[in-house]
Design goal:
Elements (H helix, E strand, L loop, with lengths): L7 H14 L24 H38 L13 H21 L5 H30 L4 H8 L5 H8 L27 H36 L4 E3 L8 E4 L18 E2 L5 E3 L7 H9 L4 E4 L11 E2 H4 L1 E2 L4 E2 L6 H10 L22 E3 L4 E5 L5 E5 L5 E5 L3 E7 L6 E5 L4 E2 L6 E2 L4 E4 L9 E9 L4 E5 L6 E4 L5 E4 L4 E7 L1 E4 L4 E3 L5 E3 L4 E8 L3 E10 L2 E13 L3 E7 L2 E7 L5 E4 L6 E2 L4 E5 L10 E5 L4 E2 L9 E5 L1 E7 L1 E8 L10 E2 L4 E3 L2 E2 L4 E8 L2 E8 L2 E4 L3 H6 L5 E3 L4 E3 L2 E2 L4 E8 L2 E8 L1 E5 L8 E5 L5 E10 L6 E2 L8 E10 L7 E7 L7 E14 L10 E6 L6 E3 L3 E8 L4 E4 L11 E5 L4 E5 L11 E2 L4 E3 L2 E2 L4 E6 L3 E12 L4 E2 L6 E2 ...
Parallel strand pairs: 1-6
Antiparallel strand pairs: 2-5, 3-4, 7-8, 9-17, 10-13, 10-16, 11-12, 12-15, 13-14, 15-17, 18-70, 19-22, 19-69, 20-21, 21-68, 22-67, 23-61, 24-26, 25-60, 26-59, 27-28, 27-58, 28-51, 28-56, 29-30, 30-31, 31-33, 32-55, 33-54, 34-37, 34-53, 35-36, 36-52, 37-50, 38-43, 39-42, 40-41, 42-43, 44-49, 45-48, ...
């Protein structure tokens, strides 16, 4: 280091401390004092450095600060190099206290589990208590870690880094050396098993798995967050990009009020300008209007006890489409008034968007977030509790299941000491919890009360948790539960507990019975091992022949043939082809049907069994179909399966060969209309199959079709005949004359054709096909049961084509299909038909086709017993091949007893047969001997610790079954506490297995603040989304009355308004009312909890104000209220995550969102109803109307989300570059919009200077006159050009004449030049430095300049230029 800087670092650091004590009054550019300030010893951590740099910058400017920062860096590196912070595993020191802390937590949790086991607390209370215990332990452990490092190793590198803020924070150190803590499961609920180890000790396998849930969540979260945050920034930039500081002062008198929080303003006033005089409580004027508030002034205002200050804000700025300097205040980059031309919109957008990545996407519902107690008061002295006279309390059960009392009024509680000492007085507020009784004697350091913090009505939500049974047995309710039946709208009945109470499960072995089993033992009878408890039988539904199948898996199938149908006169033949097996049916006359299904498969009703395979109806080529009179078909919805023949007859077929081609016309090898022979090549590689006349169809020199029509061609000049057969042609019957001297022997189809030789008639052959009236049906034989299903077959004939249909094809087609279709009668949808191959009864070599419907019964094997089933024994009652009737028993299954005991049956009802039975085994009861006479009675239920006889507590829980003089027999059981309003899944006396759900506990939990936190919430606010299930808002101010609805569930809140009108607000189920009876409410206040719909809020404000104020004022005030709401909401989210953003950035964005109104009624103005327009424009229009006496426009303010606002901007170029480009441009074109290029994006896209920053120069007041043509072609005069190129061509500006513009940069006189040369010893002849040689017209534009050797040398010496 050089001597000059030796004093710098230490003295600068100490001067940081000096800034607190000595106010700095010097100007910003004062020289640094030569005398070093006194040495001050302070720890400089991250925060200290921040303050130091800020102080240096404020007092000494940029250059000094950057040099100081540089030296600080050197200092830091220098000492870091000497000290060398290293880190090793041994630096992770686990505090000694950890073991003890975990031990304490374990004890508390064991106690909680014990209370749960004894049924003193519910499952929910247990869960809450466990989580709170661990949260508290974790926090205490963090303190232990800090204490351990501070006392034992203050220079530990991990601790130094975390503590100074260099790297890492306490929550990370906690996981390294404390405990990792509680984790959330993938659903976002906290798992009540914490990770007790830390990364230094290493996690167990279970802990590792639990830990990985959170890790995965974190990874996904980060990835989504960056994408989301980037998109948010883009939308923000788009909505605010045209907000530029364009004027100095808009002159508005409107303002916003900044209120102190707890008497402090913090940084919220700094950088603002006052909107009116700030006067202290005792009348002293602290600041005039338009004073910049700097930190000292802010402190003075605070000290003077001012609670609210009116300041100017971007929200109230009246500058047109921009913000003025005074409303914006300081630019936060340099703490001076913002410069003209600053693009504050983009700065705002980036300031809000950038921290987006730091926000979590937290949307987990932590299973009742740690309700670690606040405001707990402990006793200081031992003594007696006394409540004051006006005390009123009611019993209350805390979320941890502790019975306490809740204060209903504010009162004082005092503890009168039993020995020496002062009386301890505690102020109890309404809603506080008391853990002591009046008159109770307590020790010192006992929790007395938990004071409620203010009358905050916290919003709560309903949550549920299941109670799972952990032993099998019988359910018994305690009287206290008082279950009631509740019928919901669908008519389902549920049982609900009305009071807090226990539900017992008394032990026993529970057997699940199969669906149709009947118990064979009576209730309360002794049973032995292996005895049959119940029997189930399996019966046939329809009866039929029995077939026993081989067993599959653990069951055996019995098939019963319900119905069968054999095709008697058709042989079933099998052919093997290269593509697989083909099955045919052959009739006696040799007709063959091809089978569509193969034996062994299943088919359903209406499916085709077989199709006639015969070539009688196959044509040679394509052609035209004509129906002769008499042939009729049924109408079909689709032609896919052809048309069913209704009545037989004759079908006429006129063959023609059609080649569909897609090739170039140059490949054609014949001419249109030419006669060709069969086998002629018509197109390259395509040959005709038949002889006849060719017709060629082409389009755009591409061949489409070539048609060959066979027949006899006769040239003819008979114009009558030619005319008659023109177009589609006609049928001609035998013997009829066609033209002069031309008649025929058989039926022909005649058409007029043109050929190269001339016109003539083509006589085309007609083929006749006879279609029978109906298809031949095979002979069937049936087997069927009474009342059972049966089968049939119908034959259908389907024509593939309808009358006059032209079939374009080269190959032949099948004209008629004959199909055999399966029909079923009286079947259920589940039944399928099996296709089988069966030998003929007489000739065994011949196979027949048989279709059967089988009833299949699965008979279970014998099973061994398990926890919920007894062992079973199954016997078959039928043999293979016998016939059974409907309802006959096929098999019986017996359920056998596993262990001797006493059988008990629940009550059976008609609707509810017995599905379970219970055997009370010897180990389910226990006999406890007592030395004295027992004090319990039969039927009483007791838990551990309750007295059996004097001085003898019970060691187990259960129900007393018998009492002798010196012993008590208990049936073991387990109590479960259920809370009021819980849904009970089981009734008194029901039998349950281990793992069954007993009840669903319904409880309220505080709505956790982070349900919608972070980015999604910011997005919801800025996009002005309408939330689902939003809160009910009060529309007009008044007094609340709460009414119960007809059924006990529904509520109605009515508000009696000022003019005695009554507003009714029905409250939906599950909503919490946030107001109380008789409370005064204002417009826009929440009546229920839930997210606020900002659009509805604006409407409430506006409607309320509209009735009392002029339209314009009402709109402005309503918008101001909403703006304030939005700014605070956005700020709350960022603050909750520890991010600080200046209000003015959010205000700039919110201003863009609330700048428009919707015209409702245009009055006499030229506005259109329904159009969105700036509030300022309507205001000006209405003022003009007021002057002319026309009717003003009516409007309502609207709130636009940032995307909507971006797309609604004046500039269509900007909107199109953002989203929905085609739509925006189309609309702009249709509406003939013009873009004034006011924002940044438009100008960048067009490729001009942006109207901000340096491109703002020349932007004077006259630029506001947005009028006249655009001087896009700039003046030719180069001197004038210098200023004009920075101008915005969308404003007409009177340009000063070029002559005066030379004054901008006047050329120096000869004397000046001479003086400068002598001062720098420059020889005018040798030097060609541009500054010292007057340019002449020739060299004015010459770019190349000779290097001045001397100058270069000088620069090299100073090290400013490299040697090359």
């Amino acid at each position: 280091m050089t001597s000059s800087s030796s004093k710098s670092n230490k003295s600068r650091k100490s001067s940081k401390a000096a800034k607190d004590t000595t106010p700095v009054h010097e100007s910003a550019s004062r020289p640094l004092s030569k005398t070093p300030p006194p040495f001050r010893n302070h720890i400089v951590d991250k925060r200290g450095l921040k303050q130091l740099v800020a102080w240096a910058y404020k007092n000494h400017g940029t250059a000094v600060t950057s040099s100081m920062a540089d030296k600080l860096k050197d200092l830091g590196f220098r000492y870091a190099t000497q000290a060398a912070v290293s880190i090793s595993v041994n630096d992770l020191q686990v505090p000694e206290a950890k073991k003890a802390l975990l031990g304490e937590a374990e004890e508390q949790i064991t106690a909680t589990e014990e209370r749960y086991r004894l049924g003193e607390i519910t499952e929910v209370e247990r869960h809450t208590k466990v989580i709170d215990t661990w949260t508290e332990t974790n926090e205490r452990l963090v303190d232990a870690v800090k204490k351990n490092f501070n006392q034992n190793a203050p220079l530990n590198s991990v601790w130094m880094m975390a503590n100074s803020g260099a790297r890492g924070n306490m929550s990370q150190v906690r996981q390294l050396v404390g405990m990792r803590g509680l984790m959330a499961n993938p659903q976002g609920e906290i798992i009540d098993l914490p990770i007790r180890t830390n990364f230094r000790e290493g996690l167990t396998v279970t802990e590792y798995v639990i830990s990985s849930y959170g890790a995965r969540k974190g990874l996904v979260d980060t990835a989504l967050r960056t994408a989301d945050s980037g998109y948010l920034t883009r939308r923000l930039v788009d909505v605010a990009q045209d907000v530029i500081v364009r004027e100095d002062d808009c002159g508005t008198t409107r303002h916003i009020v900044v209120e102190a929080e707890d008497g402090r303003f913090g940084n919220r006033l700094v950088g603002r300008l006052t909107a009116s005089q700030v006067v202290s409580a005792d009348g002293e004027v602290l600041a005039e209007r338009d004073t910049e508030i700097d930190p000292p002034l802010s402190k003075r205002i605070e000290k003077a006890g001012v609670t609210a200050v009116s300041v100017r804000s971007p929200l109230t700025c009246e500058a047109n489409r921009s913000v003025c300097r005074k409303c914006y205040g300081w630019a936060l980059a340099h703490n001076e008034l913002v410069d003209l031309g600053e693009a504050v919109g983009i700065i705002a957008a980036q300031s809000i968007g950038e921290p987006g990545t730091q926000l979590t996407m937290r949307t987990f519902h932590t299973g009742g977030v740690s309700t670690a107690e606040t405001g707990v008061v402990r006793s200081v002295v031992a003594g007696t509790i006394e409540f004051s006279a006006k005390a009123r309390v009611r019993p209350y059960r805390t979320p941890h299941g502790v019975n306490a009392q809740q204060a209903e009024v504010d009162f004082n509680l005092s503890i009168k000491p039993s020995g020496k000492g002062k009386t301890q007085k505690i102020e109890i507020t309404n809603g506080s919890l008391l853990f002591v009784e009046n008159g109770q004697t307590i020790d010192a350091d006992v929790t007395v009360a938990q004071i409620a913090a203010g009358a905050v009505k916290k919003s709560v939500e309903k949550a549920t948790k299941d109670v799972i049974c952990d032993l099998a047995g019988q359910v018994r309710y305690e009287e206290a539960i008082q279950p009631r039946e509740v019928t919901d709208r669908q008519g389902n009945i549920t049982l609900k507990a009305q009071r807090l109470g226990r539900m017992w499960v008394l032990a026993g072995d529970v057997y699940n019975l199969p669906p149709n089993a009947q118990p064979v033992v009576q209730g309360d009878t002794e049973v032995t091992e292996g005895q049959v408890l119940a029997e189930a039988s399996q019966r046939s539904e329809y009866g039929g022949d029995v077939r026993l199948r081989d067993s599959i898996g653990d069951s055996r199938e019995v098939q019963i043939v319900t119905t069968a149908m054999t095709l008697k006169d058709f042989k079933l033949l099998e052919e093997s082809t290269h593509s697989g097996e083909i099955w045919n049916l052959e009739a006696k006359d040799g007709t063959r049907y091809r089978l569509n299904t193969i034996p062994g498969s299943k088919i359903g009703s209406g499916e085709v069994v077989a199709e006639l395979a015969d070539d009688r109806f196959r044509t040679g080529t394509g052609g035209l179909v004509k129906f002769a009179p008499g042939l009729a078909i049924k109408k079909a919805r689709s032609a896919k399966n052809g048309y069913e023949v209704n009545k037989g007859g004759t079908l006429l077929w006129i063959p023609q060969e059609t080649h569909e081609i897609n090739k170039d016309i140059s490949l054609l090898m014949i001419t249109d209309g030419q006669w060709i022979e069969a086998g002629t090549e018509v197109v390259k590689d395509i040959f005709s199959q038949t002889a006849g006349i060719v017709t060629v169809t082409q389009k755009n020199d591409i061949l489409r079709e070539i048609i060959v029509r066979s027949g006899d061609f006769h040239l003819s000049s008979d114009s009558k005949a030619l005319e008659r057969f023109e177009g589609d042609g006609q049928m001609v019957n035998p013997g009829e004359e066609i033209a002069k001297g031309l008649s025929i022997e058989e039926m022909k189809y005649v058409q007029t054709v043109e050929t190269p030789e001339g016109k003539g008639l083509l006589l085309r052959p007609v083929e006749e096909y006879t279609i029978p009236n109906e298809a031949q049906l095979p002979e069937l034989s049936h087997v069927k049961q009474a009342n059972g299903p049966h089968l049939g077959i119908k034959a259908t004939q389907r024509l593939a084509f309808k009358d006059n249909e032209l079939i374009k094809s080269v190959e032949g087609v099948e004209l008629l299909k004959t199909q055999l279709i399966l029909e079923t009668f009286d079947t259920t949808p589940q039944m399928t038909v099996d296709v089988e191959k069966a030998p003929d009864k007489r000739a065994k070599t011949i196979s027949r086709l048989r279709l059967v419907i089988l009833e299949s019964i699965l008979v279970r094997r014998d099973t061994m017993s398990d926890s919920s089933h007894g062992s079973t024994h199954t016997e078959l009652q039928v043999e293979d091949g016998i016939s059974v009737k409907a309802g006959d028993v096929i098999a019986t299954t017996q359920i056998l007893c596993k262990q001797a005991g006493v059988a008990q049956l629940p009550e059976a009802t008609e609707a509810d047969p017995v599905r379970r039975l219970l055997v009370e085994r010897p180990e389910d009861t226990t006999t406890l001997s007592t030395s004295g006479k027992p004090v319990v009675a039969v039927g009483q239920r007791i838990v551990d610790g309750e007295l059996l006889a004097e001085g003898e507590p019970s060691s187990c829980c259960g129900e007393v079954e018998a009492v002798d003089s010196n012993s008590v027999t208990l049936r073991l059981g387990r109590p479960y506490m259920v809370s009021p309003d819980s849904v009970l899944h089981v009734r008194d006396g029901d039998l349950v297995q281990r793992g069954d759900g007993l009840a669903l506990l319904v409880f309220e939990r505080q709505k956790t603040g982070d349900i919608v936190q972070g980015l999604p919430r910011i997005e919801e606010l800025l996009e002005a989304r309408r939330p689902r299930e939003s809160a009910v808002l009060c529309k007009k101010p008044g007094t609340v009355e709460i009414k119960q609805g007809d059924d006990d569930e529904s509520l109605t809140v009515t508000v009696i308004e000022a003019d005695d009108a009554i507003g009714e607000y029905p409250i939906l189920l599950g909503r919490n009312v946030m107001v109380s009876d008789g409370q005064q409410v204002t417009a826009g206040e929440l009546l229920t909890d839930g997210p606020i719909n900002p659009h509805e809020l604006l409407e409430c404000f506006f409607e309320d104000l509209r009735s009392r104020k002029p339209l314009m004022d009402a709109a402005q005030e309503a918008i101001a209220n909403l703006q304030h709401r939005l700014v605070t909401e956005v700020q709350n989210v960022y603050k909750s995550q520890g991010v600080s953003i200046d209000d003015k950035h959010i205000e700039v964005i919110v201003r863009q969102m609330t700048s428009k109104v919707r015209v409702e009624d245009a009055g006499d103005t030229t506005l259109l109803p329904g159009e969105l327009i700036e509030l300022r424009q309507v205001e000006d229009t209405n003022q003009a109307m007021a002057i002319t006496g026309g009717a003003p426009a009516e409007f309502t303010p609207v709130l636009l989300g940032i995307t909507k606002a971006s797309l609604n901007t004046d500039s269509f170029i900007s909107a199109a570059s953002f989203q929905e480009t085609t739509r925006v441009l189309t609309e702009a074109a249709i509406e003939g919009k013009s873009d004034w290029l006011r924002g940044l994006k438009e100008n960048v896209i067009i490729g001009r200077l942006i109207p901000a920053g340096t491109g703002f120069s020349g932007f004077e007041e006259e630029l506001q006159k947005e009028a006249g043509p655009h001087p896009d072609i700039l003046s030719e005069d180069p001197a004038g050009y210098r200023r004009m190129q920075n101008l915005r061509p969308d404003y007409t500006v009177e340009m000063p004449p070029a002559a005066s513009s030379t004054a901008v940069l006047d050329d120096p006189s000869d004397a000046d030049l001479e003086a400068t040369r002598t001062r720098h010893n420059i020889d005018p002849s040798a030097s060609n430095f541009a500054a010292f040689a007057r340019p002449d017209a020739d060299n004015e534009l010459k770019e190349e300049q000779v290097v001045d050797a001397e100058a270069v040398e000088g620069l090299q010496e100073e090290g400013l230029l490299s040697d090359d």
